[in-house]
Amino acid sequence: MTIAFTMQGEERHIASPSRWRQLSRNPRCVFGIVVITIMILAALFAPVIAPYPANEQKPSIRQVAPLSDDKFGDFHLLGTDALGRDIYSRILYGARVSLLVGAAAVLVALLIGVPLGLISGFVGGRTDTIIMRLVDVQLAIPFFLLAVTLAALLGQGLRNVILLLGATSWIGFARIVRAQVLSLKQLPFIESARSVGVRPTVIMVRHVLPNSWTPIIVLASQAVGALIVAESSLTFLGVRVPPDTATWGGMIAAGRNYLETAWWISTMPGLALTITVVAIYFLGDGLRDVLDPKTRRR
Predict the structure, then answer these.
(1) Domain total in the chain
(2) Residue 64 included in any domain
């Protein structure tokens, strides 16, 4: 399906075949799409793909090296951790949490930041001042300090981690939407809508917002990677989903005391995290080049 937006007499095809051709010609973007697709499929089918249960503990086979058999003859592709749990299986299940947290937290940030940025830029005046001062206040508070404080108030758990990350990540969306609205609201097609008596709310939703989606889509794609890293960092610090849930950050934290004797416990989930985040950023760069040619690298 082709989605078309009209601005100043121009028709913009966000999902046209030519856009997909441009994406397919970008090697980094193709790499990102392939890796993200593999990770999503691995997360969805983890119960089928994983050779062992994620939380099955066997202390008798603890710290088995990668590509080795344990004493019972069972093969472990990426080795086992300090409790005898299969690392490959836990990485597959951990992908579920990381991808879910990244995508859901971005959705929460969009639901908060986009309306506030839209109202701030379009209404202006005191409303704009109040919203921007709120942005300044949150920017002045270090992320991890704010996150730990909110975690203490909300408690731990997957839902609260998502809400916490979304509530601390809406600022970028609010600022970029506000900037777009400020550049759009004085254009002739907006003035024409005003002159014929179209209500401000309708103008914002039907005319201004659709023409602001390009930077929002690009920022959202890159924010997913940033929030996956943030979730892993918070898990490493102890602000986490339930301890019995396999997460990449939790696995990295659990292996930090065994780096000299069993380096793979932290390294393998760390590699999974790194590859996934890099792939998401590559995809974000490709979307930016296609949707916003003015920022394309030369």
Answers:
(1) 1
(2) no
